[in-house]
Amino acid sequence: MDVLLYIGLFIISLAVLLFASDKFIDSAESIGLSFGISPFIIGVTIVAFGTSLPELATSVAGVLNGNSDVVLGNVVGSNITNIAMVLGLVAVVVKQIDLEYNIWHVDMPFLWGSAFILYFICQDQQITMAESFILLAGIVIFLSYSFNSTDDDKDNRPSVNWITYMWLIVGGILVSLSADYTIYAMSELSAMAGVPTEIIALTVVAIGTSLPEAIVSLNAAKKGKTSIAVGNVLGSNIFNTYVVTGIASLFGPIAISNNIVTFGIPFMIAMTILFGLASNNKKITRWEGVLLLFFYVFFLINNIESVLL
User: Domains in the chain, ordered, with CATH?
Assistant: First the structure.
Protein backbone atom coordinates (compact mmCIF):
# COMPACT_ATOMS: atom_id res chain seq x y z
CA MET A 1 0.00 0.00 0.00
CA ASP A 2 2.87 2.38 0.81
CA VAL A 3 4.33 1.82 -2.65
CA LEU A 4 1.00 2.66 -4.31
CA LEU A 5 0.66 5.73 -2.07
CA TYR A 6 4.04 7.12 -3.07
CA ILE A 7 3.48 6.27 -6.74
CA GLY A 8 0.19 8.18 -6.56
CA LEU A 9 1.89 11.10 -4.82
CA PHE A 10 4.60 11.12 -7.48
CA ILE A 11 2.09 11.15 -10.35
CA ILE A 12 -0.09 13.89 -8.80
CA SER A 13 2.90 16.06 -7.84
CA LEU A 14 4.41 15.75 -11.30
CA ALA A 15 1.06 16.64 -12.91
CA VAL A 16 0.75 19.74 -10.70
CA LEU A 17 4.37 20.64 -11.48
CA LEU A 18 3.70 20.51 -15.24
CA PHE A 19 0.48 22.53 -14.92
CA ALA A 20 2.04 25.12 -12.60
CA SER A 21 5.14 25.55 -14.77
CA ASP A 22 2.92 26.21 -17.79
CA LYS A 23 0.99 28.94 -15.95
CA PHE A 24 4.21 30.36 -14.49
CA ILE A 25 5.88 30.66 -17.91
CA ASP A 26 2.87 32.26 -19.59
CA SER A 27 2.28 34.80 -16.81
CA ALA A 28 5.98 35.68 -16.54
CA GLU A 29 6.20 36.22 -20.29
CA SER A 30 3.06 38.38 -20.36
CA ILE A 31 4.22 40.55 -17.46
CA GLY A 32 7.70 40.92 -18.89
CA LEU A 33 6.43 41.85 -22.36
CA SER A 34 4.07 44.40 -20.81
CA PHE A 35 7.16 46.18 -19.48
CA GLY A 36 8.95 45.89 -22.82
CA ILE A 37 11.32 43.16 -21.62
CA SER A 38 12.53 40.57 -24.18
CA PRO A 39 11.66 36.87 -23.69
CA PHE A 40 15.32 36.03 -22.97
CA ILE A 41 15.60 38.68 -20.24
CA ILE A 42 12.31 37.40 -18.81
CA GLY A 43 13.87 33.93 -18.62
CA VAL A 44 17.15 35.15 -17.16
CA THR A 45 15.45 37.22 -14.44
CA ILE A 46 11.80 36.58 -13.53
CA VAL A 47 11.63 32.88 -14.44
CA ALA A 48 15.17 32.05 -13.30
CA PHE A 49 14.83 33.73 -9.93
CA GLY A 50 11.43 32.13 -9.34
CA THR A 51 12.71 28.60 -10.01
CA SER A 52 15.81 29.19 -7.84
CA LEU A 53 13.96 30.29 -4.71
CA PRO A 54 13.89 26.69 -3.33
CA GLU A 55 17.71 26.64 -3.37
CA LEU A 56 17.78 29.92 -1.44
CA ALA A 57 15.30 28.69 1.17
CA THR A 58 17.13 25.37 1.58
CA SER A 59 20.53 27.05 1.95
CA VAL A 60 19.38 29.62 4.53
CA ALA A 61 17.62 26.87 6.51
CA GLY A 62 20.81 24.79 6.38
CA VAL A 63 22.91 27.61 7.86
CA LEU A 64 20.36 28.31 10.61
CA ASN A 65 20.13 24.59 11.47
CA GLY A 66 23.89 24.14 11.67
CA ASN A 67 24.17 22.29 8.35
CA SER A 68 25.98 25.02 6.44
CA ASP A 69 27.89 22.48 4.36
CA VAL A 70 24.77 22.06 2.21
CA VAL A 71 25.04 25.63 0.86
CA LEU A 72 28.01 25.27 -1.50
CA GLY A 73 27.03 21.70 -2.34
CA ASN A 74 23.57 22.97 -3.23
CA VAL A 75 24.86 25.90 -5.32
CA VAL A 76 27.60 24.02 -7.17
CA GLY A 77 25.52 20.88 -7.71
CA SER A 78 22.54 22.87 -8.93
CA ASN A 79 24.66 24.93 -11.34
CA ILE A 80 26.24 21.81 -12.83
CA THR A 81 22.83 20.12 -13.12
CA ASN A 82 21.26 23.19 -14.74
CA ILE A 83 23.85 23.28 -17.52
CA ALA A 84 24.68 19.61 -18.01
CA MET A 85 21.26 18.03 -17.41
CA VAL A 86 18.64 20.74 -17.99
CA LEU A 87 20.27 22.49 -20.96
CA GLY A 88 21.36 19.13 -22.35
CA LEU A 89 17.81 17.77 -22.18
CA VAL A 90 16.37 20.89 -23.78
CA ALA A 91 18.86 20.70 -26.68
CA VAL A 92 18.09 16.99 -27.22
CA VAL A 93 14.31 17.45 -27.03
CA VAL A 94 14.06 20.44 -29.42
CA LYS A 95 16.92 19.14 -31.67
CA GLN A 96 18.54 22.58 -31.85
CA ILE A 97 18.27 25.68 -29.66
CA ASP A 98 18.32 28.85 -31.74
CA LEU A 99 19.15 31.96 -29.73
CA GLU A 100 17.56 35.20 -30.93
CA TYR A 101 19.54 37.14 -28.34
CA ASN A 102 23.34 37.33 -28.23
CA ILE A 103 24.05 36.19 -24.68
CA TRP A 104 27.70 37.18 -25.04
CA HIS A 105 26.83 40.88 -24.79
CA VAL A 106 26.19 40.84 -21.04
CA ASP A 107 24.83 37.57 -19.68
CA MET A 108 27.53 35.02 -20.50
CA PRO A 109 30.38 37.27 -19.23
CA PHE A 110 28.43 37.67 -15.98
CA LEU A 111 27.93 33.89 -15.74
CA TRP A 112 31.63 33.20 -16.34
CA GLY A 113 32.52 35.97 -13.89
CA SER A 114 30.26 34.50 -11.19
CA ALA A 115 31.88 31.06 -11.57
CA PHE A 116 35.44 32.39 -11.29
CA ILE A 117 34.55 34.76 -8.42
CA LEU A 118 33.13 31.81 -6.47
CA TYR A 119 36.30 29.82 -7.17
CA PHE A 120 38.61 32.51 -5.78
CA ILE A 121 36.35 33.28 -2.80
CA CYS A 122 36.28 29.61 -1.75
CA GLN A 123 40.03 28.99 -1.98
CA ASP A 124 40.50 29.64 1.77
CA GLN A 125 37.35 27.52 2.47
CA GLN A 126 35.49 30.40 4.09
CA ILE A 127 33.29 33.30 2.98
CA THR A 128 33.77 36.59 4.78
CA MET A 129 31.16 39.32 5.24
CA ALA A 130 32.97 41.50 2.68
CA GLU A 131 32.89 38.65 0.15
CA SER A 132 29.15 38.23 0.76
CA PHE A 133 28.55 41.87 -0.13
CA ILE A 134 30.73 41.50 -3.23
CA LEU A 135 28.48 38.65 -4.39
CA LEU A 136 25.30 40.64 -3.69
CA ALA A 137 26.76 43.66 -5.51
CA GLY A 138 27.28 41.37 -8.50
CA ILE A 139 23.57 40.55 -8.77
CA VAL A 140 22.61 44.23 -8.45
CA ILE A 141 24.93 45.15 -11.34
CA PHE A 142 23.65 42.22 -13.41
CA LEU A 143 20.00 43.20 -12.92
CA SER A 144 20.67 46.85 -13.73
CA TYR A 145 22.25 45.82 -17.06
CA SER A 146 19.46 43.34 -17.82
CA PHE A 147 16.52 45.66 -17.25
CA ASN A 148 18.14 48.51 -19.16
CA SER A 149 17.50 46.58 -22.38
CA THR A 150 13.76 47.29 -22.50
CA ASP A 151 11.72 48.13 -25.56
CA ASP A 152 10.78 51.81 -25.81
CA ASP A 153 7.74 51.11 -28.04
CA LYS A 154 5.03 51.27 -25.39
CA ASP A 155 2.16 51.15 -27.89
CA ASN A 156 2.77 47.51 -28.87
CA ARG A 157 3.17 46.17 -25.34
CA PRO A 158 0.46 43.70 -24.20
CA SER A 159 -1.68 44.67 -21.21
CA VAL A 160 -1.98 42.44 -18.15
CA ASN A 161 -4.38 42.38 -15.21
CA TRP A 162 -4.25 41.17 -11.61
CA ILE A 163 -5.04 37.58 -12.67
CA THR A 164 -1.74 37.42 -14.57
CA TYR A 165 0.19 38.55 -11.49
CA MET A 166 -1.78 36.08 -9.37
CA TRP A 167 -0.78 33.19 -11.65
CA LEU A 168 2.86 34.28 -11.51
CA ILE A 169 2.82 34.04 -7.69
CA VAL A 170 0.57 30.96 -7.42
CA GLY A 171 2.38 29.21 -10.27
CA GLY A 172 5.78 29.85 -8.65
CA ILE A 173 4.57 28.55 -5.28
CA LEU A 174 3.00 25.45 -6.85
CA VAL A 175 6.18 24.75 -8.85
CA SER A 176 8.22 24.81 -5.63
CA LEU A 177 5.77 22.75 -3.53
CA SER A 178 5.02 20.15 -6.20
CA ALA A 179 8.76 19.75 -6.86
CA ASP A 180 9.33 19.12 -3.14
CA TYR A 181 6.63 16.43 -3.03
CA THR A 182 7.92 14.87 -6.25
CA ILE A 183 11.40 14.65 -4.72
CA TYR A 184 9.94 13.21 -1.51
CA ALA A 185 8.02 10.51 -3.39
CA MET A 186 11.09 9.65 -5.50
CA SER A 187 13.27 9.40 -2.38
CA GLU A 188 10.82 7.14 -0.56
CA LEU A 189 10.39 4.84 -3.55
CA SER A 190 14.18 4.65 -3.97
CA ALA A 191 14.62 3.81 -0.28
CA MET A 192 11.99 1.06 -0.57
CA ALA A 193 13.96 -0.34 -3.50
CA GLY A 194 17.01 -0.62 -1.22
CA VAL A 195 19.04 2.27 -2.64
CA PRO A 196 21.53 3.61 -0.01
CA THR A 197 20.71 7.00 1.54
CA GLU A 198 23.95 8.58 0.30
CA ILE A 199 23.20 7.55 -3.27
CA ILE A 200 19.66 8.95 -2.99
CA ALA A 201 21.09 12.28 -1.82
CA LEU A 202 23.55 12.47 -4.71
CA THR A 203 21.14 11.39 -7.44
CA VAL A 204 17.43 11.71 -6.66
CA VAL A 205 17.72 14.78 -4.42
CA ALA A 206 20.43 16.39 -6.56
CA ILE A 207 18.27 16.06 -9.67
CA GLY A 208 15.19 17.00 -7.69
CA THR A 209 16.58 20.35 -6.57
CA SER A 210 16.86 21.32 -10.24
CA LEU A 211 13.46 19.87 -11.11
CA PRO A 212 11.73 23.29 -11.25
CA GLU A 213 14.36 24.56 -13.71
CA ALA A 214 14.16 21.34 -15.72
CA ILE A 215 10.37 21.25 -16.04
CA VAL A 216 10.02 24.99 -16.66
CA SER A 217 12.80 24.99 -19.29
CA LEU A 218 11.52 21.87 -21.07
CA ASN A 219 7.97 23.20 -21.01
CA ALA A 220 9.12 26.54 -22.42
CA ALA A 221 11.18 24.83 -25.14
CA LYS A 222 8.28 22.62 -26.20
CA LYS A 223 6.14 25.76 -26.57
CA GLY A 224 8.78 27.25 -28.86
CA LYS A 225 10.07 29.65 -26.20
CA THR A 226 13.70 28.50 -26.24
CA SER A 227 14.91 31.98 -25.23
CA ILE A 228 13.09 31.62 -21.91
CA ALA A 229 14.47 28.07 -21.49
CA VAL A 230 18.10 29.13 -22.00
CA GLY A 231 17.61 32.32 -20.00
CA ASN A 232 16.23 30.25 -17.13
CA VAL A 233 19.37 28.09 -16.99
CA LEU A 234 21.74 31.03 -17.27
CA GLY A 235 19.84 33.23 -14.81
CA SER A 236 19.37 30.41 -12.28
CA ASN A 237 23.13 29.83 -12.13
CA ILE A 238 23.84 33.54 -11.70
CA PHE A 239 21.17 33.72 -8.98
CA ASN A 240 22.55 30.65 -7.20
CA THR A 241 26.11 31.98 -7.10
CA TYR A 242 25.47 35.61 -6.27
CA VAL A 243 22.24 35.50 -4.25
CA VAL A 244 22.04 32.04 -2.64
CA THR A 245 25.69 32.06 -1.56
CA GLY A 246 25.69 35.76 -0.69
CA ILE A 247 22.52 35.79 1.41
CA ALA A 248 23.10 32.40 3.09
CA SER A 249 26.58 33.49 4.24
CA LEU A 250 25.03 36.52 5.99
CA PHE A 251 23.23 34.16 8.40
CA GLY A 252 26.42 32.46 9.62
CA PRO A 253 29.72 30.88 8.59
CA ILE A 254 29.54 28.40 5.71
CA ALA A 255 31.47 25.15 5.81
CA ILE A 256 33.23 24.47 2.50
CA SER A 257 34.54 20.94 1.96
CA ASN A 258 37.84 20.21 0.25
CA ASN A 259 36.00 18.20 -2.43
CA ILE A 260 33.95 21.27 -3.39
CA VAL A 261 37.14 23.33 -3.86
CA THR A 262 39.17 20.66 -5.67
CA PHE A 263 36.48 19.02 -7.83
CA GLY A 264 33.02 20.60 -7.55
CA ILE A 265 33.78 24.22 -8.43
CA PRO A 266 36.40 23.38 -11.13
CA PHE A 267 33.88 21.03 -12.77
CA MET A 268 31.22 23.77 -12.55
CA ILE A 269 33.63 26.20 -14.24
CA ALA A 270 34.31 23.64 -16.98
CA MET A 271 30.56 23.26 -17.62
CA THR A 272 30.13 27.04 -17.63
CA ILE A 273 32.91 27.44 -20.21
CA LEU A 274 31.40 24.64 -22.31
CA PHE A 275 28.01 26.41 -22.16
CA GLY A 276 29.66 29.59 -23.43
CA LEU A 277 31.53 27.87 -26.24
CA ALA A 278 28.43 25.94 -27.36
CA SER A 279 26.32 29.13 -27.53
CA ASN A 280 28.99 31.25 -29.22
CA ASN A 281 27.34 30.85 -32.66
CA LYS A 282 23.87 31.64 -31.20
CA LYS A 283 22.73 28.02 -31.34
CA ILE A 284 23.11 24.83 -29.31
CA THR A 285 22.80 21.60 -31.32
CA ARG A 286 21.40 18.24 -30.27
CA TRP A 287 24.90 16.70 -30.30
CA GLU A 288 26.13 19.41 -27.95
CA GLY A 289 23.16 18.54 -25.74
CA VAL A 290 24.19 14.88 -25.79
CA LEU A 291 27.73 15.92 -24.80
CA LEU A 292 26.36 17.92 -21.85
CA LEU A 293 24.31 14.91 -20.70
CA PHE A 294 27.42 12.72 -20.98
CA PHE A 295 29.28 15.09 -18.64
CA TYR A 296 26.36 14.99 -16.21
CA VAL A 297 26.46 11.19 -16.10
CA PHE A 298 30.22 11.44 -15.44
CA PHE A 299 29.52 13.92 -12.60
CA LEU A 300 26.97 11.59 -11.00
CA ILE A 301 29.22 8.53 -11.32
CA ASN A 302 32.14 10.41 -9.76
CA ASN A 303 30.01 11.47 -6.78
CA ILE A 304 28.57 7.98 -6.29
CA GLU A 305 32.06 6.45 -6.39
CA SER A 306 33.28 8.96 -3.81
CA VAL A 307 30.56 7.75 -1.44
CA LEU A 308 30.99 4.04 -2.09
CA LEU A 309 34.80 4.19 -1.77
Answer: 2-308 (1.20.1420.30)
